[in-house]
Amino acid sequence: MSRFLVPPQQTTTTTSATPTFAVVIPAYQAADTIGEAVASALAQTKPASEIIVCDDGSTDELALALAPYRGRIELLQLPHRGAAQAKNAGVAFASTEFVTVLDADDIFTPGRLAALAELAAHRPDLDILATDSMIDVDGSTLGTWSEKEPFEVLDQRAAILERCFLLQHSAVRRAALLAVGGFDTTTEPAEDWDAWIRLIFAGSGAGFVAEPLAHYRLREGSFTSDRPRALRGRVAALEKAREDPRLTHAERAIAEQSYSRQLRGALLVEAEAALRAHAPDARRRALALGLAPGFPPVVRLKAMSAVVAPGIAAALLERREDSTRRRKPTAGEDRQMSTRRP
Question: What pTM value is reported for the model?
């Protein structure tokens, strides 16, 4: 039991003696990776009761890639509406006690569902069940998720406002997730963080198996491919959270600080993206960055320099990005900057 990290028991919700799990796999243009993801779900030592692939309007060869698994999976073919809607469709279709989302380019190790079931039996009051995950970049494992985002045991309400200590493939009690409204499309691609915030503030507790039982995979270039959208998703999630009337005074202060930090990050990467693209609004974004509160003097100085000479600033950013691309990201870099869905 020492591998379990769990908060003090506060609720009376109970799990059945043999909890059931559905694996929901949202997929969009994922023909190259979906097979390995599905195979990992089928290889569980505790079989999933349902494996539900939610095709989010793909136009690639996804159906062909899934052909070897037909009869062992459920396939929902949906219009293209984004990852949150695809996940919601899978959760609505499932009939199990728990659902766990597996992105189409990630994999589970064979003992993951068995470990989650053991945790559920150990603490039947928990609504969110998590494991550690290995972080893979271009085929190399750089570390584990918990090395960057340690699981919070005692004050999960405050911690979830400050940082997302739960990965998106955490298993969640289906009834609890439906009760808070499922995944919110307005917070993509941070819809998972938003859901965990709402669940925890609705009274759900989260437990953790301190073993890396999944592989969270990042493609080459994913650290910068859509950072503005990734950060704007976080801003939207925290903007919702800071308005929650259930927050204490101290929690509201944490939410405000977290919101301001993510907003500054969004302003910074949006300005950098505009400069690199030589966008018409590049000077305006740089000026807004230079005048915004909360940034260190060196950032404000660089922003104002970009207002005067946007071409030079863009060239310097390209040089920095080229240098970043030539090395492997370290295990301590911000994994949540990436987003792997359009």
Answer: 0.86
pLDDT of residue 189: 92
pLDDT given for residue 171 in this prediction: 97
> What is the per-residue pLDDT across 148-162, written as a single tens digit (0 to 9) for each?
899 999 999 999 999
Evaluated on CA atoms 101, 176, 165, 252, the torsion sign reads positive
Residue type, 251: E
Q: Do residue 168 and residue 291 come from a single domain?
A: no
Cβ atoms of residues 32 and 66 within 8 Å: no
Task: Specify whether 133 is located in the same domain as 276.
Answer: no
Q: Where are the beta strands (DSSP E) in 96-198?
A: 98-101, 107-108, 128-137, 140-144, 171-173
d(CA 290, CA 127): 44
Its domain, for residue 308, covers 227-329
Q: Strand 128-137 and strand 98-101: pairing?
A: unpaired
The total number of structural domains in the chain stands at 2
Structure tokens at 262: 């993510």
Query: Quick check: 31 and 4 in contact, CB under 8 A?
Result: no
Q: Who contacts 158 (Cβ-Cβ below 8 Å, separation ≥6)?
A: 250, 251, 254
What is the distance between the alpha carbons of residues 278 and 273, in angstroms, rounded to a whole number? 9
- What are 58-70's pLDDT values in tens digits? 999 999 999 999 9
Give kind and range of the element (H or E) at residue 324.
helix 310-325
What's residue 222's pLDDT? 45
Amino acid 79: pLDDT? 96
CA distance 266 to 289: 10
Which of the residues in the chain have pLDDT under 50? Answer: 1, 221-224, 329-342
The residue among 162, 195, 218 that closes a domain is 218
Q: What is the pLDDT of residue 335?
A: 41
Nearest to 26, CA basis, from 201, 143, 185: 185
Q: Are strands 50-56 and 74-78 parallel, antiparallel or unpaired?
A: parallel
Q: Which residues contact 54 (CB under 8 A, 6 or more apart)?
A: 24, 25, 26, 27, 76, 78, 86, 87, 89, 90
